[in-house]
From TrEMBL:
Residues 22-239 form the MacB-like periplasmic core domain. It comes from the Bacteria. One of its GO terms (molecular function) is transmembrane transporter activity. This is Putative ABC transport system permease protein. The chain crosses the membrane at residues 21-42, 275-300, 320-345, 365-384. It comes from Anaerorhabdus furcosa. The keyword Transmembrane applies. The lineage of its organism: Bacteria, Bacillati, Bacillota, Erysipelotrichia, Erysipelotrichales. It is a multi-pass membrane protein. GO terms for cellular component: plasma membrane. It is found in: Cell membrane. The keyword Phosphoprotein does not apply. Keywords: Cell membrane, Membrane, Transmembrane, Transmembrane helix.
Length: 398
């Protein structure tokens, strides 16, 4: 019996047992769908992490409050960071490209005759360069604004659109913070609120000295710097800490970390979750594979006389083996292909639920490959049992 004849017999058997094929392939179908979905969700999670750090250089370093050291009992011992510390670090460090001081707090702001609590960021020079922020309309805060203490601000694009309809319309308008008016000088290009020490799209930026008066004692200043190379991150951290150690009585109130470590840690967590999700999908595949194995065992029992006849007519063990393996492979292909097709209709539904998904060809190929391999492997043992049936015993089975 040649291969084409084997294929013909398999196809005839499958067509005669359509409902059984449907039920058998259902487990593989669900497994394929699961793998495609979990890969898409995992990729979506990784994309969300990368989007959070969009535009943020891995060379960025942060000097933040060490909350493990800082508590209510020793709060009076904390020395807050100042522009003097920033200037000294910049003067002494050989690996820092630029650095700025950031002090943030939420304050009630009157903007377009509406009141809202908004994040106020007092920033020193070059905050835009270090945090990779760009002006879309108007002008950036400059050295004169910093030195003169002018009542000017730069606001995030999302904030401008919310109150003025279009970002450009915000230029020249006044906002009220406390009892003072501040002129909107510039609007930042949208970045997406990220984990970079500030939320640029929804914030207000002021010259440091001007903003410090508004924030008062409610904020704890932080330093954000930019190393000249990813390879020099460790060196930059040491230089910053060295300066703080002799300028502060107790520099352990502060800790230094870097964006590269944050990105790596976040991506590592996303990938771990991706692996866990794929593991769940694999369990579903195994269940589907066991279903195929059980159905093929039943098929072997039902077709024992048929196998006996084929052997009596000269079919070899390997031909019987080939027939049943081919049957399990086709069932797996049907289930896998159905899963791939139906998944295309599920993605829009997931998108509507605000679940981050990234549909990829690789995910579909991987899921389909798993489907075929899993189903085929689970069909080998029943096929082996069928091939070992003795012709006389098989023909005598009623």
């Amino acid at each position: 019996m040649n291969f084409l004849e084997t294929c013909r017999i398999v196809v005839l058997n499958l067509l005669e047992n359509k409902f059984k094929v449907f039920l058998t392939s259902l487990g593989i179908f669900v497994g394929t769908m699961t793998i495609i979905m979990v890969i898409a969700i995992g990729k979506g999670g990784e994309k969300q992490v990368l989007d959070q750090f969009t535009g943020l250089s891995a060379e960025t370093v942060y000097v933040n409050l060490n909350y493990e050291k800082f508590d209510a009992e020793n709060a009076d011992k904390l020395e807050k960071l100042t522009l003097d510390h920033v200037n000294q670090i910049k003067a002494e460090s050989v690996s820092i490209v630029d650095i700025y001081l950031l002090n943030s707090s939420y304050k009630e702001v009157t903007i377009a005759n509406k009141n809202e609590y908004v994040e106020i960021n007092a920033v020193s020079e070059n905050y835009d360069k270090v945090s990779n922020l760009e002006i879309e309309f108007g002008e950036e805060l400059n050295e004169e604004d910093q030195l003169s203490g002018k009542n000017v601000v730069v606001i995030g694009g999302k904030l401008a659109q919310k109150y003025y309809g279009v970002s450009e319309a915000a230029i020249g308008e006044n906002i009220k913070i406390g009892n003072n008016l501040y002129k909107i000088k510039g609007v930042l290009k949208g970045k997406g609120d990220g984990i970079q020490g500030l939320n640029p799209d929804s914030s207000i930026f002021l010259p440091y000295e001007t903003g410090k008066k508004i924030i008062g004692d409610s904020g704890i200043p932080r330093i954000i710097g930019l190393s000249d190379s990813i390879d020099n991150i460790g060196k930059t951290k040491k230089e910053i800490m060295s300066t703080l150690n002799y300028m502060l009585d107790d520099a352990t109130f502060y800790m230094i970390d870097d964006a590269g470590s944050r990105i790596e840690a976040a991506l590592s967590s996303a990938k771990t979750m991706n692996v866990l999700l794929i593991s769940v999908g694999m369990i579903v595949f195994i269940v589907g594979g066991i279903g195929i194995m059980n159905v093929l065992f039943l098929s072997v029992r039902e077709r024992t006389r048929e196998i006996g006849i084929l052997k009596a007519l000269g079919s070899q063990n390997n031909e019987i083996l080939q027939q049943f393996i081919l049957e399990s492979a086709i069932i797996s292909c049907i289930g896998g292909l159905a899963g791939v097709i139906v998944s295309q209709f599920v993605f829009p539904i997931l998108t509507m639920t605000n679940v981050a998904v990234v549909d990829t060809i690789e995910g579909k190929v991987m899921a389909f490959a798993f489907a075929v391999v899993t189903g085929t492997l689970f069909g080998i043992y029943p096929a082996y049992k069928a091939s070992k049936l003795k012709p006389i015993e098989a023909l005598l089975v009623e």
